[in-house]
Amino acid sequence: MNNDKDNPYLSGLSALDDEDRKQAEDSFESDKIEPEFDPSLVKEELYSDERISNKKSDDGGNRNNHEKNNNQKKHNKNFDELKNKKPLKKKLTLFSLKVFAAGFVVLALLFVYFDSVVLSKFGVDDKWVLPAVVYSRPLELYPDQKLSLKQMQYELSLLKYRKVPNPQHPGEYAVNEKLGRVVIIRRPFDFPDVSEGKISIMVEFNGKRVSQILNADTKEELGYIRMDPVLLDRINRIDPKEDRIFIQLQEVPPALIDTLLEIEDRSFRTNLGVNFMAIARAFVKNTMAHSVVEGGSTITQQLVKNYFLNSERSYSRKIKEIIMALIMNHRYTKDQILEAYLNEIYLGQNGAAGIYGFGLASYFYFGVPISELTQDQMALLVGIIKGPSYYDPWRHPEQALERRNVVLSVLKKRGFISDTEYVQYSSRPLGVIKRGSMNYSKTPAFMGVLKKEISTKFGPDFLSGNGIKIFTSLDPQAQQSAENAVQNELNTIERETGRKGMEAAMVVSSWRTAEVSAVVGSRTPQYAGFNRVMEGRRQVGSIIKPFVYLTAFHNGIHLGTLINDAPIKVRLADGKIWQPHNDNNRFIGPIPTYVAMARSMNIPTVKIGMRVGLNHVRETLLNIGLDKEKVERQIYPSMLLGTIELTPFEVTQMYTSLATEGQYKDLTTLRTVVKDGKIVYEREDNRGDPTIDPKDSYLTMYVMTEATKIGTGRRIGNMFPNVTIATKTGTTNDSRDTWTVGIDSDQVVATWVGFDDNKSTGLFGSSGAMRVYGQFLKERGVNSLELKRPEGVQFVNFNKDGNIVGEGCMLPGLTSLPARLDKIKYVDQNCTIDVESVPVVSGPQPVPYRP
Q1: Which of 298, 442, 462, 769 lies at a CB distance of 3.0 to 4.6 Å from 751, suitable for a disulfide?
Q2: Those residues with Cβ within 8 angstroms of residue 300's Cβ, 6 or more apart along the chain or in another chain
Q3: 489 part of the active site
Q4: How many Cβ atoms from other residues are within 10 Å of residue 90's Cβ?
Q5: How far apart are CA 489 and CA 523, in angstroms?
Q6: Residue 322, Cβ neighbours under 10 Å: how many?
Q7: pLDDT band, very low/low/confident/very high, at 81 (cuts 50, 70, 90)
């Protein structure tokens, strides 16, 4: 009910509250009758004219009310429409917010994901595949060294030093031929033991010897200095399709960095890893041109594409690239990104291997380290980035030259080089080296020996590691001399004999250190193939004989002991008769042992070997390091004449062992191995205890020097008459194989010449392999062998009966020869001729050689 009757706005109205509603409900009962309508209760005045007129006036008011109602309805309609529009806009807004939120979440997830990718792949120490790098020995310079000015210049050419009139920078040198001197600015180099900086030196030569070494700046005399080693090869077993030389940012010339940034990314130092303005500009230009005429990628984007992604042209790849570039820019400094780019960018193809990074590209195109690049060379490398195949300087030199000059033009316009420098640089030829050489000295035979040794020492998977530097014993001077000797002398022999297709193998080693200096596996040494040094197992012939005689000396036979050169028959274990013969099929009767050995006579050798016993000869061969299984298979009398099959490498090991009393049994190619900056292997002096008596070794080597004078080595003796060299030749049946071994003061050289199909060469050791050895010595140079006579060996006189005579005896025809004092069992004291009337014969007398 109306509880506010005094309020005029509420008069006539009532309101039911909860109490009223409850009372009304209670007043109705179910049995009450609904009241009926009574017309008499209606008053007439309600329908009078006055009432009607009032009604008309009320009708006018009603029309006004109706119009108001219509207006109200329109207003309500508009309001309803507005109400309907507001929820739609609100929905669109909410939808947009949801999409934005979802996009933000997706983008955030992408950033989180790609951030983890960047960290997992780029945040590691081994970011790149780094092949094992193999170096030669460093050339050691000292006064009186066996080295000519010509050989010095060859070494510098291998190192890709530049010949200039006035050296100013590392890697440059000048030569004065008349004065026989060279001025060199040696490059800095990280040797295994110490890092050495650049130094300017002057080396003077006297013929084939170094006479003096001076510091070119201070004029101080130097007793020793070493050059940087020659890069021999790069071994990549992880990913052979990817090759690089890692460089640090501080190694890169500032001019190269300036050139790179001006051409590839001028805003690199200030952008966020992505240059959106550049991308938009490139998009417009490329759209208008209907082709790709401009790129918008920053250096960071290029790094991302090369390191993480691929070259696929798609929006998804581009989005990934942008996201990861932003992450890289956030995670790493500009210097870190730039260093990574310099090592990662693709710059060409070398066969199946890609050239990645400027460190390797500088060697690939110009053969020099990155620190020695000139401005025009830098311009070419930076220009190649745009299209390594299209601007390949070997295949498309005109396009490469044009691109290089475009880069130089940009540098000139932006003030990095002057007009004069531009003219100077742009007028130069491309100056690239022979494709694929990359400053490598190709030595596949040596590398075969090296890889086998590494596998034996470190296991077959060692070279699959990253960041390995291998410093070897290879001597480029000896290698070149060996290669030239093999190629040139074989050509000469074939012209003279008319026999084509001969092959050869040569191993050069230092017997003082047992290090391999050079290896030639074929007459085409630069090409990989059948490595005869390691795989060419052939009968050795007379190469085995010195070890038969060494056994004889150990068992009491003296150099002057007479051996009867007469026919012999030997009954073998199976009852068969073996009858050896001399090469000339002639016999000369009693002959001193040293002469029989010097002339490499078969019958005396067999008789001496049978006299001392095959078991003792077998023991000697084991003591010098031959494989037991190989020796055991050859315990037959024919072993004394060299039916055993060995490789040139094994022959070299035998004679290295002979020269060192058996202290060295294994040759080596390794000096030092560095991995991750740490030395993991360093060769020490691996001399063992002597396994052969020094007295026997001395006597054997002495007779080998006599062979050079009066025996099978006379070719070498005639070539070098004033030089002492120990030599031994070998020839197998039907002249299928010819061998020579030579020992001077430094080196043991083993040489084989023959046909791969075992047909006859028509040559002997002295007319085949020894010719190649002689050519090697002629080119390389030689130092006289100095034999040190051990205690217990003394020169004594032998008479013509092969007996030692007393010290006071002066008989005609005496020969003075060294002998083991502990093996002297009999001295002939029959001295009946007047001492004063007989001239003394001092030293061994040559015996005429009649083949």
Answers
A1: 769
A2: 265, 268, 271, 273, 274, 325, 328, 329, 337, 341
A3: no
A4: 10
A5: 10
A6: 19
A7: low
* pLDDT tens digits along 577-617: 999 999 888 999 999 999 999 999 999 999 999 999 999 99
Relative to beta strand 678-682, strand 195-196 is unpaired
- Which residue is catalytic, options 155, 172, 264, 503? 264
Residues 6+ apart with CB under 8 A from 365: 348, 377, 380, 381, 393, 432, 433
Q: What is the spatial distance between Cα 40 and Cα 27, in angstroms, rounded to a whole number?
A: 27
Measured CA to CA, the distance from residue 342 to residue 370 in angstroms comes to 11
Q: What is the mean pLDDT of residues 264-290?
A: 80
Tell me the per-residue pLDDT of 403-435, one tens digit each, with 9 for 90 and over: 999 999 999 999 999 999 999 999 999 999 888
Residue that has been written with the tokens 């108001």 in this structure: 68
List of E strands, 524-663: 538-539, 562-565, 570-571, 577-578, 589-592, 645-646
151: number of Cβ within 10 Å:
20
User: How far is Cα 339 from Cα 376, in angstroms, rounded to an integer?
Assistant: 21
* pLDDT at 22 (0 to 100): 44
CA angle 68, 72, 74 (to 5 degrees): 120
Read off φ and ψ for residue 235, nearest 5 degrees: -110, 115
**Cα–Cα distance for residue pair 149/155, rounded to 1 Å:** 10
442 has pLDDT over 60: yes
8 Å CB contact between 846 and 598: no
Banded pLDDT at 57 (limits 50, 70, 90): very low
| Residues above pLDDT 90, as percent of the chain | 59
- pLDDT at residue 76, rounded to an integer: 58
Q: Give me the pLDDT at residue 73, please.
A: 57
Mean pLDDT (the chain) is 85
Contacts for 680-688: CB closer than 8 Å, 24+ residues apart: 681/457, 681/458, 682/192, 686/514, 687/660, 687/663, 688/662, 688/663, 688/664
Which residue is associated with the tokens 């090296």?
450
542 is catalytic: yes
388, burial (CB in 10 Å: exposed 0-12, middle 13-18, buried 19+):
middle
Contacts of 647 (CB under 8 A, 6+ apart): 532, 533, 534, 535, 536, 537, 538
Q: What are phi and psi of 306, to 5 degrees?
A: -75, -35
The predicted pLDDT at position 35 comes to: 45
pLDDT per position as a tens digit, 237-260: 667 778 888 889 999 999 999 999
Buried residues in 170-204 as b, exposed as e (16+ CB within 10 A):
bbbbbbeeeeebbbbbbbebeeeeeebeebbbbbb
User: CA 624, CA 654: separation in Å to the nearest integer?
Assistant: 6
Please say whether the beta carbons of 580 and 572 come within 8 A: no
Each residue of 149-164: pLDDT tens digit?
A: 999 999 999 898 999 9
Q: If you average pLDDT over residues 537-550, what whole number do you get?
A: 96
Residue 355 phi/psi, 5-degree rounding, is -95, 110
3-class state of residue 674 by DSSP: strand
CA nearest neighbour of 758 among 734, 775, 779: 734
| The token pair that represents 182 in the structure block | 């060279």
User: How many other β-carbons are positioned within 10 Å of the β-carbon of residue 641?
Assistant: 24
CA nearest to 474, candidates 438, 511, 510:
510
What value does the mean pLDDT take over residues 376-381?
97
When computed from its CA atoms, the radius of gyration of the chain, rounded to whole angstroms, is: 49
More confident site: 288 or 262: 262
With 0-12 / 13-18 / 19 or more C-beta atoms within 10 angstroms meaning exposed / middle / buried, residue 747 is buried
Residue 61 CA to its chain's centroid (Å): 110
Amino acid at 379: A
The catalytic position among 426, 481, 510, 542 is 542
